Amino acid sequence: MKNCIIIIGILIFFSCKKTITVIKEVPIVHSYSWSYDSSLYGYNKLILSSVKVNDSTLACFNKQVMTYINSNMLNGSTFGAILGTYYGELIPLSLSQHIGVFPTDSNSLRVFSSTNPNWNYGGFIFRPIYSNSATSIKGFPLANSGGGYPIVNNKYVLAPVEIDYVKETAKCNLIRVDSTNGMPGSVQFGASKDIILTPAPSTLGFSSGNYYSAAFFNRFFLTLSDQFYRIDTLGNIKSFGYGPLPITNGRVSQMFSIDNYLFAITDSDILVSSDFGETWSVFLSKPGYQYLIPTYQSVGGELYAYYLSQIWKITLSGSTLKYVELDNDGLKTNQITGINKVGKYAFVSTLAGLYYRDTASLNTPK
Fold first, then answer.
1. How does DSSP classify residue 360?
2. How many folded domains does the chain comprise?
3. pTM score, two decimals?
4. Most buried one in 74, 106, 222, 299, CB count within 10 A?
5. Strand order in 57-61's β-sheet?
């Protein structure tokens, strides 16, 4: 995967033949590289999540401190709230431009404002009301990938809180987050609705599978103990079974969207939906591990993927996904945790600090 454009030829709906074509590229001499931003130091350099707050502000998060980076004043930061937990230490926070969500322990979910200015008490702790079942497992699960508590419209959060393998039921809380009329940079609890899930009748029920959840097109998509669901903000549920395509396989571990198509990555396949996640088909069967393990992220209207210190720009051309590996000079061996564009700069957050370069040079091929 060095110095190359990787083209995955995929006929989405009708073709029988699916191929991977590798085209060699001539090495490019670059005049730009990623520069290190000295705003963060010590433990704050371990960035688990980052998000563009507005046209000039980037917010960087670990489980202890939220730090704001002004794209017009690099190498100088402003501290936000002190978050203060090590629970699920290297699992990223779930973020939107307005709120963030993460569990402080197995029974407490912290919801806070990610806007600037901010303060330590500008949010709330949500604690679920459990059933009295002696056979259920209670508490917020930690996600196998992603932040785990997706956000829709900067307002709604979906959080699994209880699962009963004996009675074959699971409960999620659909939480509404409201703004406040008081302190700027604050949010408050609005309401909570119980969402009761049962396994699809065509399956053997819940099993010890992964937990993953995401939000796309104003809907939540949830993998919970080998069952896959679509849930909207009114609480309407669609149960798919083991995965979007039960006849293929389940265990969705990641999702991404491009050009109004929604993609789901399973243990072995890439699936696609052209109707916002209601129906699915196989996009590519067994494409190879190297296409299943990167983290996919939309940045504005563009799609990127990253793994360790490598970055790819991904485009959809007809029925083909095209992967172009981008220049990562200056990132060394850092593990990337997020990509953002703020003002005239592109930022890459890593587990060892923050890097930036001019936005116009972000898509420079490697």
1. G
2. 1
3. 0.86
4. 222
5. 49-54, 57-61, 65-70, 77-82
